[in-house]
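Posting this for the archive.
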Amino acid sequence: SDPTLPQGRFDFLVQGGLGDFEYARSSLVGHLVFPLSARMRMAVEAGAGTSWGSPSTQRLWYVGGPSTLRGYDPRTAGGTSFGRARGELARAFSFGRISLFSDLGWAGERSDVRFEDAFSSVGAGISILDGLIRFDGAWGLDAPRDFRFDAYLDQIL
């Protein structure tokens, strides 16, 4: 994990259940972080997922909140499928990193995918202890157009 080299990974999920709600669902999320200079790094993340059968409310896909769509409340949109992307540019300082980012996310029914229904946001963040502690302020660009501040642990930059 040399920070001067590009880094990447894929997260693949397959899940299913039997009983009152019979369903299967899967997702694939890819992450790529690459250096631009000695103190600048760029990160991109993209993912999609879908469900089959009759998932319960807890097993639907959702976007919103710091892990999927910064600038929006958790579970802003949900459904049997989702798609999301984010990009981030960060500069390192002695105390940590300051970053600028943008997120895009959609969740809904697989049979009704419309990208004009996606939510987008822009914001800035500070991470310390090599990204272990993170503070983000983000503005939702689509209704509801709110500002949201989040403090959380372990994100892409």
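The radius of gyration is 17 Å. DSSP finds no helices and ten strands in the chain.
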